[in-house]
Design a protein that fits this description.
about 30% helix, about 25% strand, 21 strands, six-stranded parallel beta sheet, single chain, alpha/beta, nine-stranded mixed beta sheet, TIM Barrel
């Protein structure tokens, strides 16, 4: 038997445990995971002694700012996926607010043709659900293979190009106002008909607009004032409405970037009530609090906002008990000039993709997570939810040979100037981390080694079709892990700069 590659002497980590084993790779897939030496010629060997091998990370929430009409000023798919490869990520889910937006089957196919030649990782693409503006396009967009639909709750839409309007004011020309609840209900019903999961950005922008006007009139400029424009109810009211609609319609729902403690509790009750709802959090909600605003400035401004230490604690608890299903970065780059404006003037979004594995591996070092749990919340759970399992999310025969080789003894300081993202600014700058991905392997080929991303771009588009999703979920998947041995619920993660 001939093997393209063998990785010897590592500790293989899956979400259900760890084992010392060698990984044999042929034709881009795992051919064997065994402690026995198999006969045959080997094309390439890697000695992983003393290191851990995790399934390649799946990053479900990335804004690369790319598309046929994109300028590339803030980011593009080449730089965002290079940043992904640098931190062990082998699959990214591109968000649909590209240029142009992914609002139709045609726009999806056009985006794929533009970004695939730039891809350092395999990728899926979210479809954009706008309400009545593209309701008729959702079936074809689903058939074109979008992984799921995203709805930016409360955003207006430009009539000319279906782009999102972030600062809507009544009377704006060529703008569709934010959809009302009746239109949103129709949107939910239409997404259900496609068989796809609906992801929601949960903020009540009616509340935001009213309280922002008050804050601006008062002349407040600090982070505390920004927080007052987005109270807890701004998030929980939308989470509750979405859960109620999803429950009534018996459809799958996903709540994006959960960072508020009360939101975690509402999700916990919904899951206990049998609602088919998944939820993610982000590394910045696990790391920072409002007290970091003085140090970070608007570099840490993101929506939903980073809140209090109590909210951070609740998010950690939700991750420990399975209320939150996985962790992502919500990578949303902007220029350095933009992010060094005031809290009010800077755009929201964190250049965070290169902080994903450092935060979580450091949490393992500090006893907050186990490596199998990291495999669950960075790979296996998302793969199961979105129909990629067992091709992705696991190290076993037949799976793509997507691997992240980790050296848990590596201690280092995060330096933003060394980032692969074009947005070379980060709230993680200067922070100390323990545990590092030293090699990233995509379908058997190395994309990053020892911090250097290799130039080849061979990532592939992964279309997800509903019929296959159902097949994978029912034929291969086990239920998502709801508990995590080795967690320390109630522990506080505190990084030192």
């Amino acid at each position: 038997m001939d093997w393209d590659r063998v990785i010897y002497n590592g500790t293989v980590v899956n979400d259900d445990g760890m084992q010392r084993a060698d990984i044999y790779i042929r034709d881009g897939r795992v051919a064997a995971v065994t402690s026995e030496r198999l006969p045959g010629t080997v094309g390439e060997t890697t000695d992983a002694s003393g290191r851990y091998i995790l399934p390649g990370l799946i990053e479900t929430h990335v804004h690369s700012r790319d598309g046929r009409l994109a300028t590339g000023e803030k980011e593009d798919f080449r730089s965002s996926t290079a940043a992904a490869a640098a931190t062990g990520i082998t699959t990214v889910f591109e968000m649909p607010n590209c240029t142009p937006t992914i609002h139709s089957a045609e726009s999806l196919r056009d985006l794929v043709s533009v970004i695939q030649p730039k891809a350092h990782a395999d990728f899926c693409v979210w479809g954009l659900a706008l309400g009545d503006a593209n309701l008729a396009s959702l079936p074809a967009l689903a058939e074109a293979g979008c992984v799921a639909f995203k709805f930016f709750w409360g955003y207006a839409v430009d009539r000319r190009d279906n782009s999102l309007i972030y600062n809507y004011r009544e009377g704006m020309d060529n703008v569709l106002p934010p959809p009302d609840d009746g239109q949103i209900y129709r949107l939910f019903r239409a997404v259900k008909a496609t068989g796809k999961r609906l992801g929601i950005h949960a903020e009540n922008f009616s509340i935001v607009r009213a309280l922002t006007q008050e804050a601006l009139a008062a002349g407040a400029q600090d982070y505390a004032a920004l927080l007052r424009t987005r109270p807890v109810s701004c998030e929980t009211s939308i989470i509750d409405t979405a859960i109620d609609m999803a429950k009534e319609l018996s459809m799958p729902l996903h709540v994006l970037h959960v960072g508020v403690g009360d939101g975690v509790e509402h999700l916990r009750r919904a899951k206990a009530d049998g609602v088919d709802v998944t939820a993610e959090t982000c590394t910045h909600y696990l790391t920072f609090t409002d007290r970091d605003a003085r140090r970070c400035g608007a570099v840490m401004k993101t929506y939903p906002l980073i809140r209090t230490a109590a909210d951070r604690q609740a998010v950690w608890q939700g991750l420990a008990d399975g209320t939150l299903d996985w962790v992502c970065s919500d990578h949303a780059p902007h220029t350095c000039e933009e992010k060094h404006r005031s809290f009010w003037d800077a755009p929201a979004g964190i250049s965070g993709i290169e902080g994903l594995s450092p935060v979580l591996l450091t949490a393992v070092h500090r006893g907050l997570l186990t490596l199998p749990r990291v495999a669950a919340i960075t790979s296996a759970n998302a793969a199961r939810t979105f129909g990629l399992y067992p091709r992705k999310g696991v190290i076993r025969p037949g799976a793509d040979a997507d691997l992240a080789i980790v050296d848990m003894s590596a201690a280092y300081t995060f330096r933003q100037e060394k980032m692969y993202s074009k947005a070379k600014w980060s709230p993680y700058d200067g922070m100390s981390f323990q545990g590092r991905v030293v090699e990233t392997i995509l379908r058997g080929r190395t994309t990053m080694r020892d911090g250097q991303v290799l130039p080849d771009c061979f990532g592939q588009f992964l279309p997800v079709y509903t019929k296959y999703l159902v097949f994978f979920l029912y034929s291969f998947s086990s239920p998502l892990h709801r508990t995590a041995p080795g967690h320390a619920p109630g522990s506080r993660l505190a990084f030192s700069a």
